[in-house]
Amino acid sequence: MAKKHVTITIMTVITLGIIHATVVGQERGTPRVMGETGADSSANKGPEGPAIGDGMAAIKHAAEAGKYLFVFFHNGEDQQTQAMRQVFDAAMERIADKAESRVIDTTDRTEKGIVDKFDARRAPMPLVLAIAPNGAITGGFPIKFTEELLMGALVSPSTAQCMKALQDGKMVFLCVQDDATKFGKEAMQAVRAVQSDPKYAKSTEIVAVDPSDEAEAVAMKRLQVDTGSDEAITILMTPPGTVISRIEGATTKQSLVAVIQGALAKAKGGCCPGGKCGPKKAASSKSRPAKRKS
Question: CATH number for the domain including 253?
Fold first, then answer.
C-alpha cells in the first residue's frame, strides 16, 4: 500500500477544560464544610496515604501505587460546590480501585504547593483535575461536571503517554504495530533515527501501541486508526494534540524530518523554512516625469 500523509486536527482529552494548568497541561468522601481550612480525612487520606495538608505528597503516593489522582479544588461552600462535591464523591467510589482522591481548599496555606503547581487560585471553582500516574493531566473539569465526564479522564496507557509528552512541549511519534505488522521494523527504524538526531532528541517522544490491545481500542477509534490494517501506522502529533501526519507502511528519516520542518515553519507563520522569508522587494524608486500644465 502506498504511503498516505493525512493532515487532520483532533480534539483530545487535553482540551476537556484543563484550566490554568502549568503545562500546555483526582476523588471520594462525604460532604463537609468546605469553608474551613481543615480537610476531611475520609477524602484526603487513604489507609496508608499522605497526611492531611500535603497535596504534593498525594500526587507522589498515587503515582507510586500506579493510580490516578483526582483533585477537587474549591474555595468555599456555595450551592454549586456542594452539588459538585456529591458528584465527585459518587464518581470516586465507582473508580476507587483505579484512582485516589484529594479535596483541596485553595485558601489553605498548607496546600500552597499543589495549588501553585496548577495555578488553581485563578481557576473557576469548583475545579477537578485528573492526574495520571505518569503525571499527565488527563482531564480538567471546572464549575459543573458529571460522573461520566470524570470517569472519562481514565485514559489508555498510550493516551497518557502521549498527553504527558505533549504537555511537556514535545512532538510524539505514535507507532501502531506489532511483531506481525508489515514494514513495522522499517517504520520504527525511521522514527528512532529521528529521535537519535541531536536536533530532535529532546523534543520528540516515541509511543508504541499494539493494535490488538483492547485497552487501546477507544484511543485508536478516536485517532481513526484501522486496527485491522496489516501495515505499520505512524502518527506524528504536536502540542497541544494536533495530528500533522499519518503514514501507513514504511517510511524514512528524511520523510519524517521533512514533515516536522514543514509543521514548524507553518507554526511560526512563515512561508519559508523556519518562518523567515527574505525582505520584500522595495517598490521601484524611479519617478515618473510630472505632467506639464497646459
Answer: 3.40.30.10
Looking at the 3D structure of the chain, how many domains does it have? 2
Beta strands per DSSP E along the chain? 8-9, 68-74, 99-105, 127-131, 137-142, 171-176, 204-209, 233-238, 242-248
| Full residue range of the structural domain in which residue 91 is found | 17-152
Segment 238-273, tens digit of pLDDT: 999 999 999 999 999 999 999 999 988 887 764 444
**Is the domain of 66 the same as that of 1?**
no
Q: pLDDT-derived band of residue 283, with 50, 70 and 90 as boundaries?
A: very low
Report how far residue 58's alpha carbon sits from residue 61's, in angstroms, rounded to the nearest whole number: 5
Helices 184-196 and 253-267 cross at an angle (nearest 10°) of 50
Report in angstroms the alpha-carbon separations of 76 from 33, 72, 116, 206: 8, 12, 18, 43
Query: Which three cell numbers, joined as nine digits, stand for 76?
Result: 468555599
Q: What is the pLDDT of residue 53?
A: 56
- Residue 116 is given by DSSP the state H
- Residue 245 makes CB contacts below 8 A (sequence gap 6+) with 5, 6, 7, 234, 235, 236, 256, 259, 263
Mind listing the pLDDT tens digit for each residue in 185-199? 999 999 999 999 999
pTM (2 d.p.): 0.74
Alpha helical stretches, state H, the chain: 41-44, 55-64, 79-94, 112-117, 147-151, 157-167, 184-196, 217-222, 253-267
The reply to whether 58 and 167 lie within a common domain is: no
